[in-house]
C-alpha cells in the first residue's frame, strides 16, 4: 500500500469532494447540536455571560452554513460572540456578518492568532491525514476554560504491527481526552501542549466508508520512544 503525504492527500478526490458539511445546519436533525451532542450557541452564551465574551473556532466547516446561521443569532441578540470557520476547499456561502470569519486554509499548516473558548470539528477528522497532530494542536488553541469536541472514528487509526487502534485510544485518554466509542466523540477541556508516543507515517484515501457511510481517510502511525508530555 502506498501511503500519501498530507500535501498529496489534500488533492485527493475523497478529501476535496467531501460533502459531509456542505448543507449541515446549526440545529436540527442534520445539525451540529445532534452530531456533537451539545448546542454550540447555548454553550457560547453561557461562556460569554461568565467571561464577558466567547470565541468559537470550527474546523473543516464546509460551506459555513451552520456558522452563518449562528452568526445571525449572535447579531440579532447582540451577543459578545465571534466565530471563525476554517475549511480546505473554501466553497463558502456568502455572508456579510462582522461576527464571522471564514478562512480557506490547510489545517496541516494553519494556526490561529488567538485562543478560543469552543473548538469543534464536525466529521472533519475523517478526512485529515495526521489526526493526532491536529487534535493536539487544536487543544493548545483553547483558553484555560475552553472545550474541544470533535467527531472521531477510532477505526480510522492504524498502527504498524497492531491489529487495533487501542494504543492510540488509551494514549488519548491518558492525555486527558475523553472518547466515547458509542457516540464517536472526542472531547477535552482546557489548553494544554502535549505530545504522544506515535509517529505519523501517512494516509490512505482508499479506506472506504466508515460509520457515516461516506468514504474516509485512514491515518497510519508507528509507535515511537517519545512519551506524551
Automatic annotation (TrEMBL):
GO terms for molecular function: methyltransferase activity. It holds the Pfam family Methyltransf_23. CDD domains: AdoMet_MTases. Keywords: Methyltransferase, Transferase. It comes from the Bacteria. InterPro entries: SAM-dependent_MTases_sf (IPR029063). Signal peptide: none annotated. GO terms for biological process: methylation. This is Trans-aconitate 2-methyltransferase.
